[in-house]
Every structure is written in structure tokens, then in C-alpha cells.
Specification:
Order of helices and strands of chain A: EEEHEEEHHHEHEHEEHH
Number of domains of chain B: 1
CATH topology of chain B: ABC transporter involved in vitamin B12 uptake, BtuC
Radius of gyration of chain A: 18 Å
Shape of chain B: globular
CATH class of chain B: Mainly Alpha
Structural class of chain A: alpha/beta
Number of helices of chain A: 8
Number of strands of chain A: 10
Strand content of chain B: under 5%
Order of helices and strands of chain B: HHHHHHHHHHH
Oligomer: heterodimer
Distance between the termini of chain A: 36 Å
Largest sheet of chain A: 6 strands, mixed
Radius of gyration of chain B: 18 Å
Largest sheet of chain B: none
Structural class of chain B: mainly alpha
Largest interface: A-B, 30 and 25 residues
Distance between the termini of chain B: 39 Å
Strand content of chain A: 25-35%
CATH architecture of chain B: Orthogonal Bundle
Helix content of chain B: over 70%
């Protein structure tokens, strides 16, 4: 069987912050259509890893390749969309409609002095439809619930018609019922639209259930592979410490 | 009076355009800080007998770049940077004014605005600077919106966030400097912020709020200038008083927002 195209490749990547090793010798690849979950303890380097992939941080050592190009030479940033870890209060007072926010996702595709075209508007409407926020088109983002707002941010990310979607703790501040719908939505994006998804979470249960592959990070790579093969009690102890026990359950 | 109206209407359009981006970024005090810096610039201009608008522009642009660099370095909190420049530049202005042997009527007109001292060259300076500010915002609107709404996503999208942040502060510095003749250094911050927060009371999107703010700002300038002319009061105070009345009315009309 032929392997899917490599989208992201990290080779011996290390990152130091104030002389402290946050990430050490990380090597892995992400292929087209993958649904990768990244788990690890607080301060284990998950967000730093995401920021390195996005080009927001530069590795102290090693190389990052995006779509076959060195990260610093990679200009087509619209091919990777990002939904950051939002403090749910930050957008509440901002006077912007859902349409305006989603449309801002197209900015990466346009050059300076270029205005939005009909093609851009079509992409925005399609992204809103996929994310299920069309009915809120003219609503202020601050008026939406946490779950609805997160869908708006995903619509914004989809508006640039990306090939990779990266989400950092996307369910912070969202109630449990809305989280379930949200995960189903992400899975459908991966399956129906073949969108490559990288998803950072604290929730081992969600990761083990939703994603195709998992990467366990605690400064260095603890494990990388299929969740059912990897998320054993011994791996979880290595990640989170000795006071961890694995309990299986079905409810959310 | 005609010259004051020409300059005033230009300022009325440009001030809330910049103010909008400052307010949504919770950087409203930036305008006030730049105004205090431009006061130091005015004092330098008056001391060395050249057009104070130019020295105000030079100093406030330099201060804007300095503030943004300090904020970007994350060594000092954003509001502390504003406090540093606000009080620091006021101190410099007071020292220079003391060296120049105190206040005079010319300085008073720069502090609170005056419609009688607007010269034809002032009008041309205001129009040229306003055109620069207007064109920048018009052409960089979509990038400025994204940077204002979500700096991190903008950066991840390859948008040059630091350069755009610099553009905003430099444009704010220009807007403040071009407004000092009419509104005065002590009140220009209010004209940049009050129409915007009034516009935000109507719960509309970004573009519509911006249009509402410009309309409120223009009403404030026109009614303020007429009041200044007929009641012989400082134009800056009259303009900002009208803007305040509009804000109170906007709050009253939309009490639940």
C-alpha cells in the first residue's frame, strides 16, 4: 500500500526557552488525511510544538519541513489553519459579526491591497455552512455561546481552504454536551473532507476515542502510533506520573 | 471659520478610523499618550520657532515606534508602557515650556484647540496627513481587522503582525498630530475614542460600527465648531462635549447592551 503524502516532517527538533529544554529531539511525520491527537502533561511542550509547526517559534535545533519545504522558506501559510486556545472572554466585546470573523480567514490567501472577491465570499459561505454557523451570519461573535463561537473559529480556519487544521485545546470553556457534538464535527471533517487534523488535548479519553493516531509528548516523544496500541497504563504513568490509573468508560 | 471646518471635517473622519483599531485592541489610552507626546513636540516647535505640527509629528511617531517596540518585547506590560510615555512626555513638555518662560496664548490654542488660528498651510498639512491615514486604513483594512481580532492567528497566517502594529501606532501618531490645531492635544484622545465607544453601543459589525463612529465624530466636530464660533469657547472642549452627549444618548437608547 502506498503511503499518503507527507505534510509535516520534524527531524530532531529541540526547543529551549530561557535555557530550559521544552522539547528535545522530536522526530515524527504527519501524513495527508491523518487525524493526530497530541497529549501530555501541562508544560510538556504541546503548545510549543504547535507553535513551532506554525512558524510562530523557531526550533533551537533540528528542522521542520512543511509540504516538503523548510519551514522558514514556506510561504503558503494558508494551507495550514489554526484554531488557538481561546480565553472565551477575549472576543466578547469585539464588534464583529460572524461573517466578518469567518471572512478574515481568507486574508492569508490574499495579498496586500487585494480586496475580497466573489470567490472569497463563496469560500466563506461554504465554510460557514460546513461549520453550521450560517444562521448566525449577522450575529456578533460575542453574543454566541462558547460552543457556537468555537465553530465560528473553525469556520474561519476552513475559509482559507486549508489542507491541515491545527487545534489547541479547542474545547476549553465548552460544556460537555457541546463537546460531544464538536468532536463528531471534527471527525466528519477528517472523514468526509479528508482534512488533516492535529488536535491538542488534555483529555486522554477523547484522544483515545476520536483520533486515528496519537503522539504522547513530555518534553520528548514518549510514544507515537495508534491509540489502542499505545495508551496503556505504563505509558500514561510515564506521561503523567505514578498516580495514574486507566479506567475504561463509555459515557462522555 | 471655513478653514477650521475643512480641517475639522477631515479630522472628524480620520480620528475614529484610527480610534476604532485602538479601542478594540483595548489600547484606547494610546491616543491620549501620543497626544501628551505631541505636546512635548509642540513645546519644542514653539521653543525653536518652527511649525509645531512638524515637531509634534516627529516626536509622536518616534514615541509610537518606541512604545510598540517595548510592548512587542514583552519586557513591560502594555499599559505600563503607555503610563511611562504619558507621564514621561508630559514631564519633558513641562521642562521645555519652563525653559521657554512659561505658557502663552499660542500654547493654549494647541492645548485646547482653536478655530481662529488655523492657517491655510495648516489645512494643507491636515489634508495631506489625513489622506495618508485614510489610504493606509482603506488598503490594509482586512489585515488590520485580523490583527486586531486575533494577533496569534494573524501571525500564523503569515500576516506581518509586528509591522502592522507599527503601522497602527504611526497612523495614530499622525492622526493625533494633525488634530492638535482644532481639537487640542489634551482632547484629541477623546475624539478618537468617544465616537467609537458610542458606535459600539448599537451592537453592529465592525464596518457598520466604524461608519456610525465616523458619523458621530462628524456631528461632534460640526456642532462643536459652530458652538465654538457662536459662544466663543475653545473648539476642542466644545467638540468633545458634543461627543460625550452623543455617547450618553447612545447608552440611554441601548440600555441592555
Amino acid at each position: 500500500m502506498q503511503l499518503a503524502e507527507t505534510y509535516i516532517e520534524l527531524n530532531n527538533v529541540s526547543f529551549k526557552y530561557d535555557k530550559v529544554n521544552v522539547i528535545e529531539n522530536l522526530t515524527f511525520t504527519v501524513r495527508r488525511g491523518e487525524y493526530l491527537g497530541i497529549i501530555g502533561p501541562n508544560g510538556g511542550g504541546k503548545t510549543t510544538l504547535i507553535r513551532i509547526i506554525l512558524g510562530l517559534l523557531h526550533p533551537t535545533m533540528g528542522s521542520v519541513q512543511l509540504f516538503g519545504k523548510e519551514s522558514h522558506d514556506f510561504k503558503e501559510r494558508y494551507r495550514i489553519s489554526y484554531v488557538p486556545q481561546h480565553s472565551t472572554q477575549s472576543e466578547l466585546g469585539f464588534p464583529a459579526t460572524v461573517f466578518e470573523v469567518v471572512r478574515s480567514g481568507r486574508v492569508a490567501r490574499l495579498g496586500f491591497f487585494q480586496s475580497f472577491s466573489r470567490k472569497d465570499n463563496d469560500a466563506v459561505l461554504k465554510a460557514m455552512e460546513v461549520a453550521g454557523v450560517t444562521e448566525h451570519r449577522n450575529t456578533l461573535v460575542g453574543k454566541l455561546s462558547g460552543g457556537e463561537r468555537q465553530r465560528v473559529f473553525i469556520a474561519r480556519a476552513l475559509a482559507s481552504e486549508p489542507e491541515i487544521l491545527i487545534l489547541d485545546e479547542p474545547t476549553v470553556g465548552i460544556d460537555i454536551g457541546a463537546q460531544k457534538t464538536f468532536y463528531e464535527f471534527l471527525t466528519s471533517l477528517n472523514r468526509k473532507h479528508n482534512l488533516t487534523i492535529i488536535f491538542v488535548s488534555h483529555d486522554v479519553g477523547v484522544i483515545s476515542k476520536e483520533v486515528k493516531t496519537v503522539l504522547c509528548l513530555n518534553h520528548n516523544l514518549v510514544c507515537h502510533g495508534f491509540p489502542e496500541d499505545l495508551l496503556s497504563e505504563s505509558v500514561l504513568k510515564e506521561l503523567y506520573g505514578e498516580n495514574v490509573a486507566k479506567i475504561k468508560h463509555q459515557h462522555v | 471659520m471655513v478653514r477650521a471646518f475643512e480641517a475639522g471635517i477631515t479630522i472628524g473622519v480620520v480620528a475614529p478610523m484610527i480610534g476604532m483599531f485602538l479601542v478594540v485592541r483595548r489600547y484606547s489610552l494610546m491616543a491620549d499618550t501620543l497626544a501628551h507626546v505631541s505636546l512635548a513636540g509642540v513645546a519644542v516647535g514653539l521653543l525653536f520657532s518652527f511649525n509645531p505640527i512638524f515637531s509634534a509629528i516627529a516626536l509622536s511617531v518616534c514615541a509610537g515606534v518606541g512604545m510598540e517596540s517595548l510592548r512587542g518585547s514583552k519586557r513591560i506590560f502594555g499599559e505600563s508602557v503607555l503610563a511611562l510615555f504619558l507621564s514621561g512626555s508630559l514631564a519633558v513638555a513641562v521642562v521645555i515650556i519652563s525653559i521657554a518662560k512659561g505658557f502663552n496664548s499660542s500654547l493654549f490654542s494647541y492645548l485646547f484647540g482653536s478655530i481662529s488660528t488655523v492657517s491655510p498651510s495648516d489645512v494643507w498639512i491636515v489634508l495631506s496627513l489625513a489622506l495618508i491615514v485614510f489610504l493606509n486604513i482603506f488598503f490594509l483594512y482586512k489585515e488590520l481587522f485580523l490583527v486586531s481580532f486575533d494577533e496569534e492567528v494573524a501571525q500564523a497566517s503569515g500576516v506581518p503582525v509586528r509591522r502592522l502594529n507599527l503601522v497602527i501606532v504611526v497612523l495614530a501618531a499622525l492622526a493625533v498630530s494633525l488634530s492638535i490645531r482644532i481639537v487640542g492635544v489634551l482632547l484629541i484622545g477623546a475624539l478618537m475614542v468617544i465616537p467609537v465607544i458610542s458606535g459600539m453601543q448599537y451592537g453592529k459589525g465592525f464596518r457598520t460600527t466604524l461608519f456610525i463612529s465616523i458619523i458621530f465624530s462628524l456631528i461632534s466636530v460640526i456642532v462643536g465648531l459652530f458652538s465654538s464660533y457662536y459662544f466663543d469657547i475653545a473648539s476642542g472642549g466644545a467638540i468633545v462635549a458634543v461627543a460625550l452627549i452623543i455617547f450618553i444618548l447612545s447608552l440611554a437608547i441601548n440600555p441592555k447592551r
